[in-house]
Design a protein that fits this description.
The complex is a heterodimer of chains A (318) and B (410). Chain A is of the alpha+beta class and 318 residues long. Chain B has twelve helices and 14 strands. The chains are: A alpha+beta (318), B alpha/beta (410). Chain A: Its EC number is 6.3.2.4.
Amino acid sequence: MSDLGHVLVLAGGLSYEREVSLRSGRRVSEVLRAAGIDVEARDTDASLVPSILADPPDAVFVTLHGGAGEDGAIRSVLELLNVPYVGADPDACRVAFDKPTAKAVVRSVGLVTPESVTLPKETFHDLGATMVLGRIVAQLGLPLFVKPARGGSALGASIVRTAEELPAAMVGCFAYGDTALIERYVVGVEVAVSVVDLGNGPIALPAVEIVPDEGVYDYAARYTAGHTEFFAPARLSPDAAAACAQTAVTAHTALGLRDISRTDLIVDASGQPHFLEVNVAPGMTETSLLPMAAEAAGQDLGGLCRILLHNAAARTRT
Amino acid sequence: MVASEIRALFAVASRPEVVSLAGGMPYVTALPLDLVGELVSDLVTRHGPVALQYGSGQGDPHLREQICEVMRLEGIHAGANDVVVTVGSQQALDLITRIFIDPGDVVLAEGPSYVGALGTFAAYQAKVVHIAMDDQGIVPESLAQTIYALETAGAPIKFLYTIPTFHNPAGVTLNAARRQQVLDICQRAGVLIVEDNPYGLLGFDGEPMRALRADNADGVVYLGSFSKTLAPGFRVGWALAPHAIRDKLVLAMESAVLSHSSFTQLAVGQYLTTQPWREQIKSFKELYRERRDALLDSLEALMPPEVTWTRPAGGFFVWVTLPEGLDSKAILPRAVAERVAFVPGTGFFSDGSGSRQMRLSFCFPEPERIREGVRRLAGVIEQEIQLRDTFGTGSTRGHAGVDTPGPDLA
């Protein structure tokens, strides 16, 4: 693997998850440097394209989260520049990043995902919020989970336990996006399953179980060290753990993802995993789930990132 | 400390595409940087052995003399012996709080108040009780009633913390008549006043306001700073305190940091000695006045009719109140998506108030950028009004953690 010359880590961007992305980027840069790789970390601004043209990296690791990195746009630009990168191609990103579309795709291959409604804010404005929200509660029941159709880190997301809480949750959601996904809330164990493909097909890393101190895995719980308890591997029965692994690999494959992904699931009392969403540029911070899963699997994060970069670099040469 | 999604949004506000009306960074680019550079170089060459050595805990004696000269502009006649030089006036505030506050003690403060002070008070577990203010500053009746109620309840009031001139974040100034009333009320009740006055010399009309300390040497601790009149990078501020408090401050200063940096103290001293600092303050005032005008004019021209705001006669900030049912914290994400940033109001209160308010700063962006920022913000607020009307409510989501940006946000 000594043929990997210099590598570019993209972090920052103009999404709501800029800060998280910068932290992910620093972490990936550190572990790659420790693994002996020549790393340059960059933000995505007007100087990016000229600098790549002047000195093309051998491969790019995208740690841009949210719209900036996961909607496929930056990867389309990298393709225009003929620079290889780790992770899914732009078309797959676009499908995966749009949560309702991703849910439809995984449902079509037999996975279970909570029943939901997706509506833009104009619908509520044009048709009247009270009537539409009333029908949603009648159809899906309570509690509900409201989140923006696109985006991550639980920004704009909230649990709705009574019908009276729903309008304010919708307003909070529309602060972060113009389309809301309103999902039946499944009670169970929250787990995240990371999938990596080191060249021999996608493999699920051990599921990580998330137990937030305050009961809700919101932004503060995600990024404050010590505010959430994690179990890696998750405290699941062998059957449930196998079902989670299978669900994540199936989602990864059905959505046409590549190299790396993380699927968030709820495991209900019967051990059935319910697909919530998938991330094509999973968080890599000190409190993120994929690094925890890698550690639980006995894999060195730097080594893992290096193989992914190496495989990406090799793609251009075939 | 808790990670905060609001704080995380300020990471985006630091990008040049975003018009930041959120930060409080002085526009130091307006300084004659080449001259400051020569002065620093000269300082090391000619006074290196002093500048690079430990200094006294109280601060450089010559600089303290110069500080007294600066304070004379606000009617204060004090001796250098009662001045303690600190790392910004923020450190003076920290030391004062450390000296006076036991957990549970009461600090009175305007509502809203400076976020950095609220952070310090919280760190020492003081209980902050807000005093009402209007467009003329603290309401004296509210101050008197609050003191009476607290005393009746047996609550230990340690001091009143106030920013009487060009308030941060409210942008208002305590009028002359009320200044005397506030002094009288506090004197009668035996309540010390901590007067924080970083913006006092940055008034846009006429002469500087007379400081509270000018009319009461025994009952007021005055906090001053070169951060806005020169540059915050030097981190030179000071406290002017009655003798007994001054002695405690010096000991507290020594136990905290031994001594302030001799280097930056001498640099500030040299600047005051060799440069026309009064003219520099004048040019800062002209620069900030133009930006204040740009902000007020564009608010007037562009904001929806239900939005109101204060009209500062100096300083850096305008305090905006949104229509009923709108939550400034909830609209920050949308504002950032539209490439404009502000600070939501709740960070300036210790009791959760301020959800309908926001602070806009005009100190850093050029006037054209300010106008563009207000245009974007007005659009966001209009959308939010529509959303409120659609759903019949604002967002009521709670947010954990710190809701204000760090000091290095423009």
